[in-house]
Amino acid sequence: MTMPEPSRKPGYGALRKGRVSIAGTHYFLTVTLQRPLPRGNQGLSGAQIRNAINDHAMVLETWKLRAMVIMPDHIHLLVGLEAKSVSDSVRIFKGRLSPKLRKHNLKWQSGFYDHRLRPKDKLSGVVRYMWLNPYRAGICNEGEAWPGWWCDEAVTEWIGADTKDYPPPEWWRGENRGTSHSPND
Question: What CATH class has 23-172?
Fold first, then answer.
């Protein structure tokens, strides 16, 4: 009697199957470190690595960085794609940071998550999710600024907060001024 083979999950290759890269479109990206982090290591949120991430993310010529939150074990980015390929952009970004990560005994997880925002999609949910991420994770208190948060001037204007350093109270209640794709440039 032969045993049936166990069913296999489709894996990362299946995720890439439907991946479409469209220049001029906004993408929500998540890039993650291999886990678990080494004991006592701040991961990506340590000042040296955080500064290197900021430097590389802001000048990468394949995308226009709109917003970013750097967490200890992952990064969320909202970018306007300016190249032909999301995969190539992420590969360049991760590759440029890999030597710095190795010095801190860290390594990227293979692959990444991406979500292409359609014209009818609202940026508000993505920006709110990113901005509130360190607070909901319990690594930053409400009313304190998270040093790993960054957004461009258009997003700052669009979110309508008195400060771009920490989310205003209405964001905690799910209210905000952002509607559709208002930060277009």
Answer: alpha beta
